[in-house]
Amino acid sequence: MHQEEIPQSRRALRFRYPHRYAERVVHSSKVVAGALLALVLLAGCGQAGSEQQRTLTVLAAASLTESFDELGARFTAEHPDVRVQFDYQGSSTLAEQIKQGRPADVFASADEKNMAKVRELVGAPQSFATNQLTIVVPPGNPGGIGSLADLAGDHAVVVCAPEVPCGSATRKVTQAAGVQVKPVSEENDVKSVLQKVVAGEADAGLVYVTDATAAGEKVQVIDFPEARQAVNAYPIATVSGAPEPELAAQFVEFARGPVGREILTRHGFGTP
């Protein structure tokens, strides 16, 4: 096998001026080594930047979805090194997860009852919003619903399960009004009730005012005076042993402060 032929110009340089040829080789090696070092440093800087970002885990009632998404965006705008990770479910489900030891930083419940279930596992709860029920029906109101009493008729009505806050409020309202509703379905969170009405699977549903507001033209809203019999107070608290205790406390104050109040009010929540 023949060795690769070295061009004449390079042979001449190599044999006539060996020191200059060696300098060129050394210079090329330094350039390559410098480029590799730069790449390693850049990769290291990127990795260090990602490691510096902190994650704040917030467990929140499903009815807080739209308002807390906006609140989280505003919070991270002021804390660019923070990523807020939300988990929206029924308050009773989230309380049970906390009791089972799920790691989290903040818990925002749709009622005081479920917050009380974890009183030994959270900091001092503070009310930050209120909410109450309304009736939603599909556009055009095909079932002809006009009042709470109409829900006792022959209609397909969907409500929340009694163990979740919106279900507890439903029971209080119907009992106070003397209205017996026989729902075709009891859902684990208020968003599921709303979705069945939006999908046309029910003539009516009892949801929070805030969820009706978020649905916009997808539903028609029927307010009823009896709703004032069950106004839910929303408490928020840091979780004991939070991975990010300082950030958790800051988020709680942010939710209760001027920015949080403005966002929550715009989404239909009342003030505590």
UniProtKB/TrEMBL annotation:
GO function terms (MF aspect): metal ion binding; molybdate ion binding
Keyword Disulfide bond listed: no
Keyword Metal-binding: yes
Keywords for the protein's UniProt record, in alphabetical order: Metal-binding, Molybdenum, Signal
UniProt protein name: Molybdate transport system substrate-binding protein
InterPro entries referenced in this protein's UniProt entry, alphabetically: ModA, ModA/WtpA
Binding site for molybdate: 63, 91, 190, 208
GO biological process: molybdate ion transport
CDD domains: PBP2_ModA_like_1
Database matches in Pfam families: SBP_bac_11
Family to which the UniProt record says this protein belongs: Belongs to the bacterial solute-binding protein ModA family.
